[in-house]
Amino acid sequence: MALEIRPTDATLGAVVRGVRLSSLDDDIFPDIERAWHDFAVLIFPDQHLSEAEQIDFSRRFGPLERSLTANNVGADPDIIVLSNVKEDGSLWPDESAHGLFLKGNNYWHTDSSYKRLPAKGSALAARIVPETDGETAFADMRAAYDALDPEMRTYLSDKIAVHSYAYSQGKVGGTNALNQAEWDALPPVRHPVIRRHPETGRPCLYIGRHASHLVGEDENESRRLLERLCAEACRPPRIYTHRWRVGDLVLWDNRCVLHRGLGHPGNQARHMTRTTIAGDGESNEWLLSA
Ligand code: OGA
Ligand code: MN
Question: Quick one: average pLDDT of 90-105?
Fold first, then answer.
């Protein structure tokens, strides 16, 4: 099997074929990692990985981050289950606490930016897909930075955003998703709005739904600015939208990509498993000026 890497029409994303992730050759891994850095989102169709295989593949990129436990219906703490299917096969209503927790994913975000050390990457595997809709969209925050006008780049170069899960989940009404101890463990954190990617050196916008406002700026005004930046950043040609088929695995780089689910009819099952590659400790030192 020859490795084939086919870029999408967007500024990010490539479809990777000719490789079996369940038995990945050590010789091939550097090519995959390089493609990940180049394209930021890698789509691997038709992999049908078991959860253990998904974990093993993800660990090649670094140690995994564990889930916020109260939501996680799966047995393995390294696997985050994003699913509206209950154990008995019935579906969680959209308006249930679990449904609202899932709904939060439908707004542009980068995984766990509300943590002091946010995730480096995520891999999502499709196990049950709805007949209609249920796509995931990805937006390129390297290209979004490049598209900023020079005045805005200068303005943002030293800005720090407050990221808060209470803020972002509060907006979707999903605060019952966590218990009090878990909320207490997630105070607001600060991250630079522009960070230089440690592998590629490219400056990236680091924003999304968890970013509440800017430190030292008017809260409402800076919130509106962040919303405007996000809306402008997440536009073609910087968007790739993935239509899932069972067995697909998509791996993205949370350091330079925003993503969101597009939603699907509540009476259809969708069951996805995510592995999350932990940040490597450099995240808060990625100030552009550093
Ligand atoms: C995620 C996520 C969106 C989706 O897995 O982190 O945000 O479409 N998923 O399931
Ligand atoms: Mn996510």
Answer: 93
